[in-house]
Design brief:
- This protein is of the alpha+beta class and about 450 residues long.
- The protein has three domains: about 1-115, Alpha-Beta Plaits (2-Layer Sandwich), CATH 3.30.70.1050; about 130-145 and about 270-445, Trigger factor, domain 2, CATH 1.10.3120; about 155-260, Chitinase A, domain 3 (Roll), CATH 3.10.50.
- About 50% of the residues lie in helices and about 20% in strands.
- The protein is elongated, with a radius of gyration of 36 Å.
- The model has no long low-confidence stretch (mean pLDDT about 90).
Length: about 450
């Protein structure tokens, strides 16, 4: 078999495969022999079908399969062995003439090859990239500490209603005379949170309410006619909500108030670990430390974006085989409509340019990712998810279990590999380039996105 590759431009080439009978004949004979041992045909015992009959029925099919397998393997091996920096996959050339698999023994296949543009990119101490140090304000620390206290809080009974309390009691439908309707709706253990009423006048009726007090209010007005909320409270179908636009009575049996956790030793141990924090000052310092750890990830993400922009600008414009890449994109998206390629091609080229630059930067630093890195990234991602909810003291065994579940999904593993590469790339170039540190508030940093 003869394979020839010729460049026909800076970023395109033509690959020709010439295949002769001797290249695939032995494989065809072997496949036919194996097939003859398996097929069943009336009048013949299994494995005893005459070879001439097997050839008559299956020779063309087997020949096509073996020629195609040999062609694909040969293309892959040639491109790999000769380090052809190909974009996408080989595309059948317009020069290709039809090949008759049944009548021909020798074949010629011609493919158009999209080549990656040649360029160099080197980044070092002479290159300056911005790095944003996000400030942690006292307000952020207080907000996070309050959230942690809420998570560790508990309900307590109260005698007098205050904002955000939960009221529990008997809810009863009233007539026009504000007396209970015979056979009307009665909910024995109803729960109300007047804080979330839509109507302020109805909300005021519950101010300073006490146990055993009976309050008359308009439920429909309180919830601004929201059928879902009213139906849920009255335990009726949404379609019947409009039947209950009159007043209701509510007899208060219980007032439940949620009390945030106290800043005491028990709270500190649960949230920060045994003996790690002893007072509010140390708790605030620990919260600040945790916020800063999360913000480093955000700062690193922005740094990588800025590094990308800097590198792309330094490399400048690159030449791509536009028409050939459009054909490849169309072939890979046969389920999309005709406008898909034109609508998405420019964006794909932007990403392709970064992909090629990123590959060179990764190669320059010898960055590699192994199973240990992927598992560590899964645990880190899990820890980060918990931290976003203020949960910073999750046992390692739980993190490990969540990470193992993540690693069972192929698409998540692929995403973790990319994350590992980005993290290593970021760490490497934070050391190599000159960082222009800029202090910025969390609010202003968020506005950048």
């Amino acid at each position: 078999m003869n394979i020839q590759f010729n460049k026909v431009g800076n970023v395109s080439g033509e690959l020709t495969v010439q295949m002769e009978l001797a290249d695939y004949e032995a494989k065809v004979k072997k496949s036919l022999k194996e097939l003859s041992q398996k097929i069943q045909m009336p009048g013949f015992r299994p494995g005893k079908v005459p070879m001439n009959l097997v050839k008559k029925m299956y020779a063309t099919q087997v020949k096509a399969e073996e020629v195609n397998k040999l062609l694909q393997d040969s293309l892959f091996n040639y491109i790999k062995d000769n380090k052809v920096n190909m974009l996408g996959e080989p595309m059948g050339s317009e020069k290709q003439v039809p090949q008759d698999i049944e009548k021909q023994d020798d074949f010629t296949f011609i493919f158009d090859i999209a080549l990656a543009p040649e360029f160099n990119v080197e980044l070092g101490g002479d290159d300056t990239v911005d790095y944003y140090d996000i400030e942690v304000s006292d307000e952020m620390i207080t907000k996070q500490l309050d959230a942690l206290r809420q998570q560790g809080g508990h309900p307590e009974e109260a005698d007098t209603y205050a904002d955000r309390d939960i009221l529990r009691g008997v809810l009863a439908q009233l007539g026009e005379d504000d007396k209970p309707v015979e056979g009307g709706v009665v909910v024995e253990n109803a729960s109300l949170m007047p804080t979330y009423f839509k109507n302020d006048d109805q909300k005021k009726l519950f101010e300073n309410a006490q146990k055993n007090q009976v309050i008359v209010f308009n439920l429909h007005a309180a919830y601004d006619g929201n059928a879902t909320e009213i139906a849920s409270l009255l335990k009726v179908d949404k379609e019947k909500v409009e039947e209950y636009t009159g007043n209701f009575s509510f007899e208060v049996h219980e007032i439940s108030r949620f009390v945030p956790a106290a800043l005491d030793e028990d709270f500190f141990n649960k949230v920060f670990g045994e003996g790690a924090v002893h007072n509010e000052e140390e708790a605030r310092a620990k919260v600040k430390e945790n916020i800063q750890a999360l913000q480093v990830n955000d700062s690193d993400y922005k740094f990588l974006l800025d590094l990308r922009a800097y590198a792309e600008n330094k490399v400048g414009e690159l030449e791509f085989p536009t028409e050939l890449l459009k054909k490849i994109m169309k072939a890979n998206n046969t389920d999309k409509d005709e406008s898909y390629v034109e609508d998405n091609f420019d964006k794909s080229i932007v990403e392709l340019k970064w992909h090629l630059i990123r590959e060179k930067l990764v190669e320059a630093q010898g960055i590699k990712v192994d199973d240990k890195d992927i598992k560590a990234a899964a645990i880190q991602a899990t820890r980060y998810q918990f931290a976003q909810y203020g949960l910073n003291n999750i046992p390692d065994e739980y993190l490990e279990n969540y990470a193992q579940e993540m690693l069972k999904k192929r698409e998540q593993v692929s995403a973790l590999v990319e994350r590992c590469i980005d993290q290593k790339l970021t760490a490497a170039y934070k050391q190599l380039v000159n960082l222009n540190h800029k202090s910025i508030s969390a609010e202003d940093f968020s506005k950048m996105f």
